[in-house]
Amino acid sequence: MFILKNSSSISQIARLRSPKFRQAGSNCTLSFWYYNYGQSVGAAELQLLVDGLKQPTVLWRTYYNEGNQWLKAVIQLGRLPYPFQFSLDKISLGFYEGVSAIDDIRFENCALPPPAISCEGPNHFWCRDTKACIDSLFVCDLVDDCGDGSDEDSCNPDLQCNFENGLCNWEQDVEDDFDWIRIQGPTPTVNTGPLKDHTTGTARGHYLYLESSEPHQFLDKAVLLSPVFNPSGNRTCVFRFHYHMFGKEVYKLSVFQRTVSNTKGWLLWYKFGNQENRWIRQTLFISSSKPFQILVKGTVGDGFTGDIGLDDMSFVGCTLYNGNLPTISTTTSGTSVPATLPMNNCTEKEFVCRASGHCIQMIQKCDFRPDCSDKSDESACAMEVCDFEDKGLCGWHQPALEEMSGNYSIRVTNTFKWQPGRGANLYPEQEQHCPLTDHTTCTEEGWYLFADSSNGEFGHAADIATPVISLTGPRCKIVFWNHMNGSTIGSLEVLCKSSNRTSKLWTQSGSQGPQWNRAEVFLGIRSNFQVIFRAKRGVSYMGDVAVDDITFEDCSPLLISGKPCTSEEFMCANKHCIPKNNLCDFVNDCADNSDESPSI
């Protein structure tokens, strides 16, 4: 059937009505082929008209000339329990030549499930009136799969939410960048987001959506928090939800589980990119030995056609926990330091050992040699070995990030920065340029440190530094493993900062392949300095710099024993003893260069 415009009247409407249908099953879809061609052919839209509802629901639209071709439209109808029909409206412009046509209209999977003679087994549910046999996972999921509503009877309202009357017992996270929005009908931006909810299949129903337009920026996050649930025990808690990800710039939807309230938890599921204009059901099986909570996180893409929808979220096999999740301390790990110092006679230029009150020289603090019996002089210092397996940073810190976080007017969420990571938490797009396994354990569960290039812009730098190191010995070196893989990898530098002077000790740029590579940087004798790892971002997100297993080797300073040197040793001008094999080897082993003197 086609429409040929041959009049110059403005805003003419051609309307084609379908027969009436009594109802449709939960998997019902409508498809047709359409043709909309001409210089100013105008728009067309398909509307759903449901008995008892005054407002029509727009199911499909085309706005303009789509070329001399037939195109296919597939429309998700879902469960419609009341009589309905369709109206195809073609709206013309004033002066144009154009042709609109429709052909091959098809309904699929629109019947209710057939009755069954029997329905046995714990994984099946026998519908009360229709006698259909359905999977038990479809019971109490806010969808009338039976056709008589019996699969949605006697359900716990605290375990499901269709957002028709608010957020139920879900909450907006206060630690994210913005909130999910409850809405009816289409989202404000065309060519993205749902046109209708999933519960009713009409513009009357409500759902949640993530708005991707300004002022929201790329990688801004909106997080929804579930109520807290009891440990699953021997049973499995099942989480069902429906999501909608339609638009050229849709980015990411992910689900996390946590047992501690001030953490992000661990990843259960994720989905990237445009999934077409449809609601999609997702089922997750959850087990936990502790009380837990579910987090649903939406992330904004790089543009305004990236709206994401959520609807009909339900749990089965779960029970609510009467309490809150515990929190963990986020203080730096290490030897605890009492708030008050023990009795001592130390001067301001001396360090007080926390347990004994013994005094040592300040230069003996953070020198890789414990001089206090309780090792308190090395407790808040750079660790000799750091493998990041406890997700801690081993005393390393990010000065620029700390300055920014102190200024509340600056957003640090999307800053190019160092952070702990592991292969188990990667998304598909990251697998091409971020380590799949760490170096320590060679598993996806092992942790490493990486600079996430999905944040920041070309040329941005991220620094992570040690605390001040008081003194090192002549053979001190830093050994670490690095991973630099990706088409737009930036660079990694090792710097030494002393007072206001910073010098470059080592640098590497460009892709080095999909493996961990060993690097060694000589430090030698230095005093009152910091080691800095600096990652520089490449031209795009396709290249993350990672490091693991950072080790300071042979870094404790020379110790004067007070004993005379042996026949196998050389006495330095400063009274240190070193092996004679270390003479004239171009290394300042004595710390005063006397072992490299031409007069030896």
Overall outline? elongated
Question: Separation of termini?
Answer: 104 Å
CATH class categorisation of the largest domain: Mainly Beta
Which fold name fills CATH's third level, the topology of the largest domain?
A: Jelly Rolls
Helix and strand content put the structural class at mainly beta
Rg, alpha carbons? 33 Å
Sheet having the most strands: 6 strands, antiparallel
**Count of individual beta strands:** 36
Helix content: under 10%
Low-pLDDT runs of 5+ residues are 330-339, 405-411
Mean pLDDT: 87
Contiguous helical run count: 1
How many separate structural domains?
Answer: 5
Strand portion: 25-35%
In CATH, the architecture of the largest domain is: Sandwich
Write the layout of secondary structure elements.
Elements: E1 2-4, E2 13-17, E3 29-38, E4 43-50, E5 57-62, E6 71-76, E7 84-91, E8 98-108, E9 124-126, E10 133-135, E11 160-161, E12 171-172, E13 181-184, E14 206-210, E15 221-225, E16 237-245, E17 252-258, E18 266-272, E19 280-286, E20 293-299, E21 308-316, E22 350-352, E23 359-361, E24 385-386, H1 399-406, E25 418-421, E26 448-451, E27 461-465, E28 469-471, E29 477-485, E30 491-498, E31 501-509, E32 517-522, E33 527-536, E34 544-553, E35 569-571, E36 577-579
Antiparallel strand pairs: 1-8, 2-7, 3-6, 3-8, 4-5, 4-7, 9-10, 11-21, 12-15, 13-14, 14-21, 15-20, 16-19, 16-21, 17-18, 17-20, 22-23, 24-34, 25-26, 26-34, 27-33, 28-33, 29-32, 29-34, 30-31, 30-33, 35-36
Disulfide bonds: 140-155, 366-381, 565-577, 572-590
Keywords: Disulfide bond, Repeat
Pfam family, one: Ldl_recept_a
